[in-house]
Amino acid sequence: MRDSRHARLILGTLLTVALVVLTVDHRAGAASPLWPLRTAGSWFFGTVEQVGGSVVRPVGGFFHAIVNAPAAQAELDRVKAENVRLRAGLAASRLDAARAAELKRLLGVAGLGGYKIVTANVVARRGQPGFEDAIEIDVGTGDGVRPEMTVLNGEGLVGRVIQATADSSTVVLISDPGSAAGARLEGGQEIGVVHGVGENGRLVRFRLLDSTAAITRGSRIVSFGSQRGAPYVAGVPIGVIERVEATPGELTRIAYARPYADLTALDVVGVVVGAPAKDPRDAVLPPKEGPR
Amino acid sequence: MIVGLCVLAAVLLQVMLINRLPLPAGGAPDVVLLVVVAMALLRGPAAGAIIGFCAGLLVDIVPPTAHLVGQYAFVFALVGYVAGRGVGGPATTVVLCVLMAPLVSAALGGLIADPRVTLSTLTEQVPVTVVYTLIVSPLAIWLVTRERPHPRFPQ
């Protein structure tokens, strides 16, 4: 009991002291007599805290890392996803730029030849090496595309439409071994037939009907054109002769030509829905390459 | 001496490490309070009140401080006395002290019209601190009282 009373006395004294200190500090504000105490504490413990801070900081950092690990993981995932998205966007914009350039070239060809074209994108491709070479494009009868229409791109002849549905069409490339296109040597009347030989369209075979005609490497061939422009309109550049085979005694001469159009990397193509009123002859041919 | 060192260590640990831990819900356990409670459990009400007063004064002057000197001296003196007297068993005493300290502190702040003491402080921050302190309390009490397995309880 004495102990308890003693303790109560001490408690009462201490609480009173605390309240007095509190009141003095509160009333006096900046002029408080406790400022020296506070300043001394600030100086001493501030120093201790600065010294200890360098020791304690790694510990805090460790806990920080542990506590933030889920959030950091989420952040990492988010940043990764964003990175993929941005990369895809970058690739898409690059593709768009390439596509715009192709469209521009295509329009140039169409303008030169006076062709009326419908532009299309290649959406699928069939091409086991050596077998059929065909592509699917995203325009169809709804856009005015009919079977047996010429397909070209900014560089030259690509193929012909063999089948058209409402909004897509199948195009057989000139590199398909089963395709044959009438062709004419540049600057003359010598005509022949272009056959595909597969080989992913790197070369096409040009069979010249007149075995005595002069044909050399570097000669250029354009499409001859069929009646009413089906399946091939006249004057579309086909390719450059790469190699002439010596075929003595034969009725025809055989040469191999490199197509202007890169048949392995087709993207934007045009379907000629209206043939020119007049054969453009050699007007659409690209500028001649230098002697090789 | 040992008491002084313990309190000093607790205060420094509190301001340098524990208050800076990014714990969920934005609170931190009050280690100084637990040390005061444990010391008072060991040494009885009179010593508990004195230890609490000194610890509170230390808390009041260790930077960073933005409250009035004497506030925590008052609170911890009261807590030390209550813990030293004991209310029921040790567990009850600790829980009561942990609950009492922030409420007394808030009441004192309200008396001197501290603008930081609002209803949202009482309903949002105080419970978080109380919960954290209660979680840590077994460890802290054990650390301080392990010398004597049975704390003295003057009845």
Q: What share of the residues of chain A does DSSP label as strand, in percent?
A: 25-35%
- How many H/I helical runs of chain A? 2
Number of spatially distinct domains of chain A? 1
**Shape field of chain B:** globular
Main pleated-sheet profile of chain B: none
Helix fraction bin of chain A: 25-40%
In round numbers, the mean pLDDT of chain B is 79
Average residue pLDDT of chain A: 81
Regarding quaternary structure, how should these chains be classified? heterodimer
Report the end-to-end length of chain B measured between terminal Cα atoms: 27 Å
Q: Largest interface, per-chain counts?
A: A-B, 38 and 35 residues
> Over the alpha carbons, how many angstroms does the gyration radius of chain A reach?
42 Å
Could you tell me the number of beta strands of chain B?
0
User: Major β-sheet of chain A, in short?
Assistant: 6 strands, antiparallel, barrel
SSE order of chain B: HHHHHH
Task: Please tally the β strands of chain A and state the result.
Answer: 12
CATH architecture of chain B: Orthogonal Bundle
SSE class of chain A = alpha+beta
Number of domains of chain B: 1
What's the CATH first level of chain B?
A: Mainly Alpha
Order of helices and strands of chain A: HHEEEEEEEEEEEE
